[in-house]
Design the sequence.
């Protein structure tokens, strides 16, 4: 299989990373060489194999649903890239 | 007394407990050496002033019952440290100052350790040479312009160069063991679920583990004892009986059965690596252990599986970097444009490549062919180990297929860079513990490592085997201080 520029554009859109024409070409080359390497897996028959989703063979623990962090609004917004008081600010979405 | 920075962690702890030396003395010594070692570029963030203050405070009222009393330690910059910048080696987190502490680092401060600074690493731990870091290459103390390995390259360089007595790294596909092998140091990747992932910048959540990187096996065991705790804040943390790894450390491995997997004899592996492996086999036999030839038939499928699973998880984990809640934000014409420019300018080439691989294998129409397929093969890889462990107690392999390479040598070919992790990746996929110990040198004088892989939760056993082998190998790291003018 081969990843063409159209596919790169599609993945770029899905992953929300803008890619210009020049980089798209390089990315296609890189991804093709990586996928050539990955294709090796197709040699294996896996029809009756259960997929492994986690190596930790334990069931998730339950805990009481309690609020443990109180009044940490300041901490939460502290690293936000645009100054504000109580919320995250994004570019205008609705005119 | 020998030069402070030349002492092992165990010696430093002993000397502090016997009041032969103060925390301030030790902290000063490591700061001074770190200051003289800027050329290694091991640090991203130095926290020296604060470290010295904490050391002085410790000395005023020393608690000598702690396991790391007043010991300064620099850690990989992937661990969130409260009020100290945490970048994950990325531009996108260049201004991120966590408001909370990772469990693993919290554990070492609780035992008396003091933060020296944050160490360089590949961006989001994606790399095998530390060359993907936004903060530049790290030099290997072994030789100029040699990579220290990756992704915990700054950590490996700092331990080998004696800028910190010990450190913590993280390992998703070999990021502790490969740099340990490249720098002549000891690195342990614990069992998945042994060390909490809380507060560690996530790469691939089903594979990531934190672990110690040290000058010797005993130091490594001591740090593992401190960082490995059950943590309710990590839903995959496992509540099992943890050993007192350093106290229970023993070089008696008589009667242990050690598996030698034939599939690790890969095409094109240098003869030096094969010779080293044979030497290792002899060493464990000399210690009274028995070696048994075993087969791990799906070994060659591990890397392709990893390069589906890890990028898929990464693409999901890294979706949070959108320029809204924290981190770098680029200017955009609208919200979507802001997202796309932020991620395009904020992430480096390798991270973008992996996000795109991951997005692709998870995208509609390709999920079954790639991601589901990889999960099935992952099951086969794990079953290989389960089968082998019916016959053996541990497995011995080389750590890497080559010694350290020159900076720039492999940057243009992602696949050849990925091949570095061929012997370490299967261990992460199966969630097992693995340790790399320095075992010899190649013809260039560069260190080579051997890896011991254990059963899940059997860290004590592989530490013991490593400890017994270490005595026989008697490895001496050849550090000439070439970078100190």
Sequence:
């Amino acid at each position: 299989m081969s990843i063409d520029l159209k596919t790169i554009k599609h993945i770029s859109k899905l992953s929300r990373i803008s890619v210009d024409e020049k980089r798209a070409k390089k990315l296609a080359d890189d991804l093709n060489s990586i996928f050539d390497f990955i294709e090796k897996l197709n040699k294996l028959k896996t029809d009756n194999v259960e997929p492994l989703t986690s190596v930790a063979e334990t069931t998730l623990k339950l805990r009481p649903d309690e609020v443990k962090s109180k009044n940490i609004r300041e901490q939460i917004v502290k690293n936000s890239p645009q100054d504000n008081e109580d919320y995250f600010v994004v570019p205008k979405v609705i005119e | 007394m020998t030069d402070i920075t030349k002492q092992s962690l165990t010696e430093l702890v002993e000397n502090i407990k016997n009041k032969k030396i103060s925390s301030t003395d030790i902290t000063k010594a490591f700061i001074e050496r770190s200051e003289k070692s800027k050329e290694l570029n091991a640090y991203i963030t130095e926290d020296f002033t604060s470290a010295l203050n904490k050391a002085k405070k410790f000395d005023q009222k020393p608690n000598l019952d702690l396991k790391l009393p007043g010991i300064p330690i620099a850690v990989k910059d992937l661990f969130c440290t409260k009020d100290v910048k945490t970048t994950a080696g990325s531009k996108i987190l260049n201004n991120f100052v966590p408001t909370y502490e990772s469990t693993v680092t919290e554990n070492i401060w609780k035992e008396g350790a003091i933060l020296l600074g944050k160490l360089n690493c590949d961006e989001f731990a994606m790399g095998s040479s530390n060359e993907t870091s936004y903060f530049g290459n790290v030099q290997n103390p072994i030789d100029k312009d040699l990579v220290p390995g990756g992704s915990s390259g700054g950590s490996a360089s700092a331990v080998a160069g004696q800028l910190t007595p010990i450190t913590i790294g993280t390992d998703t596909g070999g990021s502790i063991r490969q740099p340990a092998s490249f720098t002549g140091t000891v690195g342990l990747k614990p069992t998945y679920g042994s060390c909490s992932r809380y507060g560690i910048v996530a790469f691939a959540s089903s594979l990531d583990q934190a672990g110690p990187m040290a000058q010797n096996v005993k130091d490594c065991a001591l740090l593992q004892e401190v960082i490995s705790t059950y943590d309710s804040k990590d839903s995959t943390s496992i509540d099992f009986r943890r050993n007192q790894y350093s106290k229970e450390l023993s070089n008696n491995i008589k009667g242990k059965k050690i598996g030698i997997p034939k599939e690790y004899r890969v095409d094109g592996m240098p003869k030096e690596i094969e010779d080293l492996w044979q030497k290792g086999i002899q060493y464990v036999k000399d210690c009274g252990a028995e070696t048994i030839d075993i087969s791990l038939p799906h070994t060659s499928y591990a890397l392709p599986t990893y390069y589906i699973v890890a990028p898929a998880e990464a693409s999901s984990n890294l979706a949070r970097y959108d320029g809204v809640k924290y981190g770098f934000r680029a200017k955009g014409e609208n919200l979507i444009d802001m997202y796309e420019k932020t991620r395009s300018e904020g992430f480096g080439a390798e991270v973008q490549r992996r996000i795109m691989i991951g997005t692709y294998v998870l995208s509609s129409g390709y999920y079954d062919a790639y991601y589901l397929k990889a999960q099935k093969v992952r099951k086969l890889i794990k079953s290989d180990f389960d089968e082998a462990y019916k016959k053996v107690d541990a497995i011995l392999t080389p750590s890497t297929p080559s010694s350290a390479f020159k900076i720039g040598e492999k940057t243009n070919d992602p696949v050849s860079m990925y091949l570095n992790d061929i012997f370490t990746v299967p261990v992460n996929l199966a969630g097992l513990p693995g340790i790399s110990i320095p075992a010899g040198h190649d013809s260039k004088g560069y260190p080579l490592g051997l890896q011991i892989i254990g059963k899940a939760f059997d860290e004590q056993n592989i530490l013991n085997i490593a400890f017994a082998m270490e005595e026989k190998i008697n490895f001496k790291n050849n550090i000439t201080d070439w970078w100190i003018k």
